[in-house]
Specification:
With 107 residues, the protein is mainly α. The protein has helices at residues 2-11, 14-29, 34-57, 63-93. It is built from 4 helices and no strands.
Amino acid sequence: DEVARDIGGFALGLPAFAAVLGLTRASYARGDVRSPTIVAVLVALTTAGVATWLAEVSAPDWRIAAIGAGHAVAQTVGAVVLVVLLLRDLRRRGAESVDDPAGGAVR
């Protein structure tokens, strides 16, 4: 039961983790290396803070699951921040800045 609970705590963050990976690559494709780096630091700090707090306030049997839940919260925050930054960049630059691999601009 404990192992399933612990895996479940970490599994909560799996969609957000995948989103962060994909959105990071989308940022790189747009030539933005700075934003995903800052978000990665933000996610690491958020994970440390939230996971520590949840582990402290949880029952001993739930501490590992709580750490997983803290990781899930941090990854979700990171995914939301990256979506906001990418959308803001897309609106600012407009569609004409998206390069077509064939050589033209996609409009």
